[in-house]
Specification:
This protein has helices spanning 2-43, 50-63, 65-74, 85-96, 99-127, 132-157, 163-196, 206-233. The chain is mainly alpha-helical and 240 residues long. Helix 5 crosses helix 6 (132-157). It is globular. The protein starts with a helix and ends in a 7-residue tail after the last helix.
């Protein structure tokens, strides 16, 4: 029994030491990736969808190398920097035109908008120590509003829809996307965090940012099939 107690204390000690290092590396690499992709979209891979040009850097901050891999795999044609003009447009269009790649772009756009709102509200919730259900509801509302009015509405409006039509279509798409993304976040914050930590970590701790990133990773996995369905149904536009 004493050995088990010592072992648990050792695990807790190692976790407390290694977590800031791993989280720091994860976000440090993510920030470098975000800076690179901003440059890449501006000067090399210039044909990226306008709405996605903001989404990719945001997701790279939180998803780090996962988002970078998806960007290269689904949105950046090889040697795109060696061509220009109509040939550049054709190569990019051909590379990103598969349904799977367009769904990936749609999911990334969803995670960027919703995730930005969720993490912002998480910071506020932890500072003011909201109880779990109040925090979850606050994150849902703020994440939904970010995704609906800032990301989905702007993207659909830019395609020529009227304001009312864009608001409705953006609401419909966001409603279904947000359910699955918050399901992933809820699993992490509601079940995983209590197992690892006695109390939810505040934004001044590395664990907060680590679990925020993990929640968005799980949320991305959950929301991908939903985005696949929404794009196939025509309720969301595949993005590339």
């Amino acid at each position: 029994m004493l050995f088990l107690l010592h072992f648990i204390l050792l695990v807790v000690l190692v976790f407390s030491i290694i977590t800031p290092i791993l989280v720091g590396l994860w976000y440090g690499i993510g920030i470098i990736c975000a800076i690179w992709v901003i440059y890449d979209e501006m000067y090399v891979n210039k044909r990226v969808n306008k709405s996605l040009k903001a989404a990719w850097p945001i997701t790279m901050i939180f998803l780090s190398v996962i988002s970078l891999t998806l960007y290269i795999w689904t949105c950046r044609p090889p040697k795109i920097g060696n061509v220009s003009g109509e040939l550049e447009q054709k190569i990019h269009h051909d590379y990103v035109s598969s349904f799977r790649k367009r769904v990936t772009g749609s999911a990334i756009h969803c995670v960027a908008g919703d995730g930005l709102g969720i993490v912002t509200s998480m910071i506020i919730s932890r500072i003011y120590r909201f109880p779990f259900l109040m925090e979850f509801g606050f994150e849902y509302v703020v994440g939904f509003l970010f995704g609906w009015l800032i990301f989905q509405y702007v993207a659909i409006r830019s395609m020529g829809d009227s304001r009312f039509s864009a608001l409705w279509k953006a609401f419909r798409a966001e409603f279904f996307s947000m359910i699955t993304l918050m399901l992933g976040m809820g699993i992490v914050t509601g079940f995983v965090v209590p197992i690892v930590l006695a109390t939810p970590p505040g934004p001044g701790l590395a664990a907060f940012w680590g679990f925020a990133s993990l929640g968005l990773v799980v949320g991305t996995i959950f929301t991908y099939p939903m985005n696949w369905w929404l794009v196939s149904k025509g309720w969301k536009h595949g993005m590339s």
